[in-house]
Amino acid sequence: MKFSILQPTLKQALALAGAHRGGLWGMVAIEATESNELRISARDQDSGVNCFMPATVTRPGGILLPEKLLAELVGNLPP
To answer: What is the CA radius of gyration of the chain?
Structure first.
């Protein structure tokens, strides 16, 4: 998976997913699609949140990462 997106946009989406703290063990799923869209989602047994945003996707794919670690990494990137 390889994509490009502005740091503030990604940071805002992660904040929304992070607000859904009951997510699957604190994990966030990121999926970059061939249609140049990035989806960030967090779920628990009862509900979930999906954030869709435009991105430049050069290699589609997906990954499941700890929300806290990812938010910290993105927060330390330059805007």
So the answer is: 12
